[in-house]
Amino acid sequence: MKYIPEELQGREITLEHLNLSEIAWRKNDALKLVGHLQSKGAFILGGDVLKKEIDGYRHNYDSWYLNPENGDAIQSAEHARSCINKYPDGDYAFVFVVA
After folding, report:
1. In order of start, what are the domains of the chain with their CATH numbers?
2. Where is the Immunity protein domain positioned along the sequence (predicted)?
3. Signed CA dihedral, 16, 18, 19, 21: sign only
């Protein structure tokens, strides 16, 4: 992801254990990333939710999506925040899809 701010670099969670090249972010880092993406005018199309298990993070089959025709970058950030904030702090991580 080209929009990672310096303060978050190195804090990502790799998903190599799932044979995926995606990266995920713990809740507080994910919320910081949403703010950064919003400041850059990036549209957050959606994301996936993962839950920490004994052997690493696994998809919990929850996700969110916002069609670009239904909002702007600010609305996409608000939608992402709302979805992320549904989860308690702790063992959840979030993968972003950014336009």
Report:
1. 11-98 (3.30.190.30)
2. 15-97
3. negative
